[in-house]
Amino acid sequence: MNRDDCFLLGKIARTTGLKGQVILHIDADNPGYYDYLKSVFVEQNKQLVSFSIESISIKSNGQAYTKFKDIDTVDQAEKLKNCQVFLPEEELDKLDDTSYYYHELPGLALCDENGLERATITNFIDTGMHYLAVVNYQGSEAYFPLNHQLFVRIDRKNKKILFHIPEGLLDIYTHPDEQVNDEQ
Question: Tens digit of pLDDT for each residue in 116-132?
Fold first, then answer.
């Protein structure tokens, strides 16, 4: 399996118990959705290695108490600590143009509701309260709130995501001195 064909599900945080169990932190809006998992890909030495799941119990905080087949000791499980865990993209439900997955965002053009390209999304950040898109706007790094009130639609074919962009929001990143002077 190639990493480009997968999405990052989470990270193995630590071992638990004495029989090779691990705690997998699932980085998703609804971690309980993944309680069906039968296997995952764990990145080891820059390679994705398939691991079959013997049992999984997902808590509401996104921690999945996971037992992999053939991992039976704490020492074996310890080698998986801090490894990233992936699933194939094909495991995800197909979304229409009114929804998106956060991992789809990097590389998309951030456009206003008329389709005018304003910035390029380079990453996203989970602040704990909401998500922010990290964007390249006129050569500067800027942050844009990813909330459903501003979201218009996603155009996957043309690699664009359309949002209602409040006037002046992105400009504060390229002209910060003007914003300070306006307030005085």
Answer: 999 999 999 988 788 89
